[in-house]
Design goal:
By secondary structure, the protein is mostly helical. Helices cover 61% and strands 0% of the residues.
């Protein structure tokens, strides 16, 4: 069963990268030197695992190398940071 992924999350970004790479999650596991299950867990909001920074960089670059436009993980982080900042500093506006 496919899980819904909230937009602008690392979960959605990882699914986007998997869709761009020919081997999907298997390619992502090879690129990061982790098991396929570990990579899948990074994108599962129901697991406690989080993607390490070195893997974030490697996967955003692999996405671009495979012809993808942009940096899905970086973009998700940027949006989350902007939203958190807007919420935290709302009194300044």
């Amino acid at each position: 069963m496919t899980k819904l992924r909230a937009p602008a999350t690392v979960d959605a970004a990882l699914a986007r990268i998997a869709g761009q790479l020919p081997g999907g999650y298997a390619d992502m596991a090879e690129i990061t030197g982790r098991a396929v299950r570990t990579v899948r867990n990074w994108g599962d909001p129901d697991t406690p695992e989080h993607i390490p920074f070195d893997a974030q960089l490697a996967l955003d670059l692999a996405f671009q190398a495979a012809g993808g436009v942009g940096c899905p993980i970086y973009e998700a982080y940027t949006i989350q940071l902007e939203l958190a900042g807007a919420d935290r500093f709302a009194q300044r506006h």
